[in-house]
Design goal:
The structure holds 2 protein chains of 2 kinds. Chain A has 14 helices and 19 strands. Chain A is an alpha/beta fold. In chain A, helix 11 packs parallel to helix 13 and helix 12 packs antiparallel against helix 13. Chain A is globular, with a radius of gyration of 25 Å. In chain B, a hairpin with a 4-residue loop joins strand 5 and strand 6. The chains are: A alpha/beta, B alpha+beta. Chains A and B meet through loops of A and strand 5 and strand 6 of B.
């Protein structure tokens, strides 16, 4: 009887060892080197892939999710060397949307796949010119108001001044390169009359919910936890939380919808009540109405129209240009109505690039200059 | 009534109560939806209240998505018009729909025709198949997806 029990136990142990060995054998065993990042070469293997698996769909994840996580911010191109020594160059603006890294280590793009031996990331020259980050906005506003920065903040105070109040003027989708073009085309006389904006950069993915979380928490996506488009709130402390706790009045004028939870603010939605197809005129009316009653300590105003038109007709198309003119004029009216002593921060959350997909002519969401670079104006009225 | 019959009677009543509770097959969900704003008597409905009301089917309706391809899906739930009428809403300009995570949107009245508070997605309880998008969702046919507010908690009527 005892012998039988011992044999059974030994059998169980052997089976467990066998299962462990089998599972170890099932673990994908691949690796390639990633070059061109801040600290030189690094190995990417299944363990790396696994650290990003929350972004994977059907066994593959966007390669740029790894590139961002490993330090790339704006990418021009990548050079992939396969196991046979063949080198393939990918223009990032063309391929960012399609290149996926499979769980099996294969780089998949369109109808082909490669097993990379190394990937050289060619980063944009713009990266070295960046002067400010979207996550600097929260500490800048907090510094001006004399309140604490949000608890997770890693950003820097861009102004270093105190102010009676702060206006955060949010121009959705108005990226830095589009700003430069609009300047050249004479579309933005009001913004042109201000000092040159800082060359800013947003966080990845460059979409409104993620960018808004970054600007309100003063830090980057892995820390504030909003890393994809579908998440609409953060549990991390925000600028509005701190301001509200300090007893300040926080008011937010939005378009018809809240792209992100603005906990701590008194929110005023601006639906398209006049049925003209846009909400920016309603946002302007509500903003002027608030200012007429008295400038809040912290005032957040969000214009959506440039982004909406950019998606629909594409950057550079006439209706989008008209929208840029309209928003520029609205900025002028707001600045005029603003009391002296206000710190003004005008910024975009992301840019926009041209596409021809699903009835859309513009989109954003990639590590390319048009999507990642943003203008940030900071000045005292 | 002898003791045996009494026990059988009590068990029978208990069985009927259990069957009544499970009759709709609705999941046991703790959720409330309020109708507020410019109404004569604001109301709050529990999930069980909504599941017990007349259900309207919307078959193969279009959701205009902001990313990816538009979707055609089927939903069932309670007519929004019925809820607004019960709360005493008259003519209104817009509705503001609020979600549990703080999302909010103001929707023009003209875009809420045929809208429902959906409890089922393609015949399945939303609470069961996509709990992070439920248990109830505002479904407004043929409008952009940002009007389809999941985890909706409040409908505010604005005149």
């Amino acid at each position: 009887m005892i012998k039988v029990e011992l044999k059974s136990k030994a059998l169980v142990v052997l089976i467990l060892i066998g299962l462990l060995a089998a599972s170890a054998g099932c673990r994908p065993n691949w690796s390639f080197t990633l070059e061109g990042l801040n600290d030189g070469k690094r190995a990417v293997n299944f363990a790396t892939w696994n650290a990003y698996d929350m972004f994977a769909e059907e066994g593959a994840l966007p390669l740029e999710q790894i590139l961002y996580g490993e330090g790339a911010r704006v990418v021009d191109s990548i050079s992939v060397t396969d196991e046979d020594g063949n080198v393939i160059q990918y223009d990032w603006a063309e391929e960012a949307n399609s290149l996926q890294l499979g769980r099996n280590g294969l780089l998949q793009g369109g109808d082909h796949q490669i097993r990379p031996d190394s990937i050289l990331v060619v980063r944009s020259k713009w990266e070295s010119l960046v002067e400010a980050h979207i996550y600097d906005i929260a500490p800048t506003a907090a510094g001006a108001l004399g309140i604490s920065e949000p608890s997770l903040s890693t950003g820097e105070d861009l102004a270093g001044v105190s102010a009676e109040s702060v206006l955060l003027l949010f121009l959705d989708g108005f990226g830095y390169l589009r700003y430069q073009e609009a300047l050249d085309e004479g579309l933005i006389p009001v913004l042109e009359g201000l000092d040159r904006p800082l060359l800013g950069i947003t966080t990845y993915p460059p979409v409104t919910s993620v960018s808004t979380a970054s600007l309100l928490t003063g830090t980057e996506p892995p820390r504030h936890g909003v890393e994809t488009r579908g998440i609409r709130k953060t549990d991390s402390g925000t600028l509005f939380d701190v301001a509200r706790e300090a007893g300040l009045q926080v008011v937010a004028v939005e378009g018809d919808a809240l792209a992100f939870n603005l906990r701590g603010a008194e929110v005023i939605l601006s639906g398209d009540q006049d049925g003209n197809g846009g909400t920016d005129d309603n946002v302007l009316a509500n903003t002027l109405s608030v200012l007429d009653k008295g400038m809040p300590d912290l005032f957040f105003v969000h214009f959506h129209g440039i982004d909406d038109q950019g998606h629909e007709v594409g950057p550079g198309a006439e209706p989008e240009e008209d929208k840029i003119r309209e928003v520029d004029a609205a900025v002028g009216q707001i600045l005029e109505a603003l009391p002296a002593g206000t710190l003004v921060v005008i910024f975009a959350d992301h840019g926009m690039h041209q596409v021809n997909e699903d009835g859309r002519r513009g989109n954003h969401g990639h590590l390319i200059p048009r999507d990642m670079l943003i203008p940030i104006w900071v000045f005292r009225k | 009534m002898n003791r045996r019959r009494w026990i059988l009677f009590v068990l029978g009543i208990a069985a009927l109560l259990i069957l009544a509770a499970c009759g709709s097959g609705a999941p046991d969900v703790d959720w409330e939806l309020s109708i507020t704003g410019d109404v004569s008597h604001p109301l709050t409905y529990s999930f069980t209240d909504l599941a017990g009301m007349e259900q309207v089917d919307l078959n193969e309706i279009l959701m205009e998505k902001s990313t990816g391809e538009d979707e055609v899906t089927s939903w069932s739930g309670v007519s929004l018009e019925v809820l607004l009428t019960e709360a005493g809403a008259g003519d209104f300009a817009t509705l503001t729909a609020l979600a549990a995570d703080g999302y909010a949107i103001e929707i023009p009245a003209g875009e809420t025709n045929d809208a429902i508070i959906a409890l089922k997605d393609n015949g399945e309880w939303i609470a069961d198949v996509t709990p992070d998008k439920g248990p109830v969702r505002l479904v407004t046919p043929d409008t952009p997806a940002n009007r389809w507010v999941f985890q909706v908690t409040d409908i505010q009527v604005n005149q």
